[in-house]
Amino acid sequence: MRSRARLAATLLAFLSGVLWGDPALAVSARQLQQAESRWMAASGWILTQRMATGSWNAALDPALSGLVGPEDGAFTTSLGQLAAKQTAAQSGWCRVMACLLDSLGIDSRDTVAVSMTGSFPGLNLAVLLTLEAGGIPYRCISSLGASTFGANDSTFNWPLVEGWLRQRRLLRTGSLAITPGGSGDRLNGHDLDAMRAAEEALRPHKASLHPASLQQAVELSRELLGPRPSLSLLVNVGGSHPVLGGNDFGRQMPGGLLGEGSSSPAQAGDEAGTVGVMQLYWQEGLPILHFSDIVRLAREWGLPAPPQEAASPAELVRDCQRPRAKPAQKPVTKGKRKP
Fold this sequence. Notes:
By secondary structure, this protein is an alpha/beta fold. The chain has helices at residues 2-20, 29-53, 82-88, 93-104, 121-133, 158-167, 192-202, 214-225, 241-244, 248-252, 277-283, 294-300, and strands at residues 112-116, 138-143, 152-153, 156-157, 177-179, 233-237, 256-258, 288-291. Strand 1 (112-116), helix 5 (121-133) and strand 2 form a beta-alpha-beta unit.
């Protein structure tokens, strides 16, 4: 009788895991599968749209992801590496995101702040779709600008992608606000035609922001993302100027999971030396997940760099107790050391 009861309990536990997922995980196996399926559906839809407009280049995107852009689109803000953009365009980043959320104990009771540019649209998708699959609330600010080979032109940019995915009901929440991006978060240095194209791209979004200065961009971002006590994590994808700031702090911040705060002053890297959103949250002790140095991170997690197809191989093992990528060290900053 006891063996039958034990068997029934085991079967019930098994069925619970299959039907509802493991409640101990931030993102259950079933939810992760949903995130990856939606990522692949989004990738396929974007590829179809870009092929229809003639904006997709097969030579740059052999994995057929639809998520690698041109070298020099109208909204290009900086130089990027083609291998990094190709490496970011694969579904396995959903699994990496789920593992990192689990390692931090993030679940549906938490709120995550998200900042992203158009530089890595594949990673943007992985972050947002994994959070949504896990039922984890987030507050996201994105920008129009992107580095080379990102979503950087009028026929392929991040605000346009979000619109496509909402129409297809693949993305529920998306960005609270969208900014121009680039230098000063104002596309400084772009010609008049690019500025007009940017204004047209942002027009459909009622919550677009047009900061008058980098300092104002930082303040607006902080206000929208929320105060430190309301947040459990900051996820950053790409090199948003107000997030990285106008000093060397953001540029020195290594890619990966950064779990300790720091009150060390950063060395001023330009004439303004504006303290960015990342540094402000870092000093307040908020954990930061910084998607930078993408090829290195991919190799540490067992992802192909670059991939031959958009669907990542199933060999990537979820080990949420011990992520393969070791927490990065604090950035080295100049100034007076703590005793």
